[in-house]
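I have a small job for you when you get a moment. Would you make up a two-line entry for one protein for me to read? No commentary is needed, just the two lines. Write everything out right here, beneath this request.
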Amino acid sequence: MLVQVLKHLNRGVFRRDIPCRFKIAPETVQYLIDNVDRTLQQSIEIEEKLSIDLIENLSDIKEDIQQQLQHLKNVPNRLENPNIYHLDADAVYPNIILTNRLQPSTIADSTLFPQCDLNRPNARCQREIN
């Protein structure tokens, strides 16, 4: 099922200030809805190294996530300003970055990706362009 989820991800060059049309695959969103418990458990226990029992409002968080996912499923054709979650600088040539004015708003810092294995001093994936 992960392949199905990845198949529906949009890729390309996006800017936060230019609206883009996106078509959400409802069956993929349903997969995410069906796996909210497992995803929360992995995020809390594996990534954050906390006991899931410590989360007092877990049911509220789960309900909020499911409502947002249900909205995506119900309105699959969207026109939105994209959020840029990851820019693989090794795979994108600098001229593309400069041409599309992706700098500096898309540079990730430790607050955006605290669990990233490459999020450490002198990581080669975090090169800024002068």
Remarks:
- The helical segments are 2-7, 26-34, 36-47, 58-74, 94-99.
